[in-house]
Amino acid sequence: MAKKEAPYKRLLSGFILQSDSGCWEWQGSKYKNGYGWMKVFGRSVSAHRYSYELHNGYIPDGLEVRHTCDNRCCINPDHLILGTHQENMQDAVDRGRIRKGKDHPMHGKKVERPRQSNVVMVMGKTYKSQKEAERELGLGSGTVAYWIKTNNGKAKLINKGELNGKRFKSM
Ligand SMILES: [Zn+2]
Prior knowledge:
Layout lengths: L6 H6 L2 E3 L6 E3 L10 E4 L2 E4 H10 L7 E4 L12 E4 L1 H10 L25 E3 L2 E3 L2 H8 L5 H7 L5 E3 L14
Antiparallel strand pairs: 1-2, 3-4, 5-6, 7-8, 7-9
Zinc ion binds next to loops.
């Protein structure tokens, strides 16, 4: 039996670059759910998690490595970000990957995200929810959420505590 290559070498020689998307598509073994995996020192690890750790460092406890490209077998560290399990699930729902199932905890929540009921400030004006802001300003669905997520100065979440402040008397 040939001597095994170092795990990072196997990782970096185990993908094919997709020129259109820039994804590094894992060519090795895959879990049923589409994520790639490989053996590292006798343990099976997710290829994308291993790639994230190699390039970006330690994954804190409780966090998941998410794909910005929605391509589960992609191991391009530029397409990988840290997030919570909940965010990961929400991504899947938003992208229509998880189909409606009555037993699924996110059933029926595709449109109304729980946090959309949060008070937001958009372009200096306060709204009871992201949805309301979008409606009043004629923005596309999800725009305000996107601005908040990307720290765009146009929109921010208002903490409940701030609601008692005089700035929000109008509500
Ligand atoms: Zn990708």
